[in-house]
Amino acid sequence: MRNLNEDNITEAVIARLADMPDNRLKGIFINLIQHLHAFARETGLTEEEWKKGIDFLTETGHRCTDIRHEFILLSDTLGLSQLVVAQNHQRSSNATEQTVFGPFYIPGAPVLPAHGADIANDAAGEPCFVSTTVKSTTGEPLAGVTIDVWQADAEGYYDVQDPDWSDENMSLRARFVTDESGTLTFRTVKPRHYPVPTDGTVGRMLEAMHRHPMRPAHIHFMAQKDGYDTLITHIFLDGDPYLDSDTVFGVRSTCIGQFSQHPAGTAPDGTGITVPFHTMTCELLLDPANGPNGARLASIG
Ligand SMILES: [Fe+2]
User: Is the CB of residue 120 less than 8 Å from the CB of residue 188?
Assistant: First the structure.
């Protein structure tokens, strides 16, 4: 096939996929090619702009490491991550809503007891005592749920953003297993709103778009138990000024936590505390694996 032009090249490229045996993958490629070509046509993309786009993606890739996920951040800030999450997790009306995973999760967080741990590991900030109960959507407390927790510190930074960070010195990250009553309690510091990293390609993109890079304060939770749809969510700080303009579009009304401030005195764990502190309580309600989300995935099959 020769002498292709702007009117017939899309059809010619798609024709090359005729022998693909995987129909799902073939469909994804056909859609990708159609939309990519349509994008170039509809924008009247110039060669200079195409080159800038290639350079942008190349630099984005060069920015990525095991702990710096610039492509996830790009997906998050373009709303693609939350779109994919939303279309893959149609939940029961009372289930806790799914939100973006974000770029700061690190596997291998220390496994800590369900009650009494302090995950701050000397991170500065106002003490915050968290109590979480995990239930099914029918209200049954769920024991044995593995809960990953990760959050920024009081300055708005994750531990991995420290140049001296190593996986032997994690802070504000932990993995718990809920007790017989489906609960876990731990001590941490009150999180603060923070900017996503702006020293890479995503930062330049946000600046070009005249957008702020801020995320409202939150704690990330991931809850996993056999027979239930894994829940990846955040619990946000009520009243945060960025709740309605989260730069990664992740805020859900069902994910606002109850944070309360208390004077110095006795902490929820019964210990004396000489500084003011906060408490946060939340419930995480898990959908069964054969719930709305499971049924939908089966229908795609
Ligand atoms: Fe976060």
Answer: yes
Reported in sequence order, the residue ranges of the chain that DSSP labels E, i.e. its strands, are 115-118, 127-136, 146-151, 173-177, 183-189, 194-195, 214-215, 218-224, 231-237, 256-262, 265-266, 272-273, 277-286
Going by C-alpha positions, the residue among 298, 271, 263 that lies closest to residue 126 is: 263
Distance 54 CA to ligand 1 centre (A): 28
Report CA(50)–ligand 1 centroid distance (Å).
Answer: 32
Confidence tier at 122 by pLDDT (50, 70, 90): confident
Pick the CATH number of 74-286 from 2.60.130.10, 3.30.360.10, 3.40.50.300, 3.60.20.40: 2.60.130.10
Gyration radius of the chain's alpha carbons: 22
Q: 152-161, 190-199, 291-300: lowest mean pLDDT where?
A: 291-300
Q: How many angstroms is it from 170 CA to the middle of ligand 1?
A: 15
